[in-house]
Amino acid sequence: MMLRILLLFLIQQKSISIKDRKPAQSADKTLAAEKQKLSAKLVQAKKHDLTKYTSKSSAALTVAIKATEKVLNDRNSKVDLVKTMEQVLDTLSKNLVVAPKIPDKPIEPIQPVIPTVPEVNQEPTSNPQSTPATPSTNNDSDKKEDTDKEKSHTPAEIGEKTTVMYKSVLYTKDLEKTDKVVSGYGKLNLVTDENGKLKVYTNKGQHFYKVVDTDEYVRVRNVTGTKVTLKRNSFVYKSNGKRVSRKLLKKGTKVTVYGGKYKAIKHYRKTAYRIGHNKYVKSVNIKNLNQLNN
Asked: Is the pTM of this model over 0.85?
């Protein structure tokens, strides 16, 4: 008896589950059918040549086509949304506006340029034997203008940007100091000769380089330096007092010294000379110091 009751209960549960599945299966079939209709409308919409229509109407249809493709690819799309996209595609396809044709502009014929001949007004002369007056020309005034331009025009100075190795005051051509000061390792555009070498200007036994297009001069020794000879073995130091390396510059070695001597090495009470970027030798190790006076 109990077995019969159990079997009847199971049969009832299966029938209920079958009834629940029927609506879901029918909904899936409806969605598949609607998607098939929407896919057919999408194919028709893509057949339109959008270049023939206005940009506004064709842009709206393009957006609708992309949205339709997303709906078709989405498995969770609802039937109402699929039907809505069908209506949108139909409406936008019907509302496509044909773009107006732009008439071609006629090519205007090129008219030949006819040179104009200036009229010459000839005044009758009472005396037939008198010579006609020669027309006045502007050649003389043009020649004067050309000569004035030649006098006023001076060729531009050729220069090269050069590093100033030592803090320098700029001078005038009369050896007067200006207010301008160039810091060490700064740049100046200095005059060069035809061979591209820095041009040296000498005034009262002192040598200078000239700044391009100015009346300013800088000492040669502060830019390209002066060759001197070491009178004893020398270490090369940094400004912080440490040696650059353990290598010694041997006695008799020629080095280039920039600027004058000053207290450049920290913890060294005496003076030194700069021989490169942050490189110094003690001044007591250099002979021919008179070379540095110019």
From this structure: no
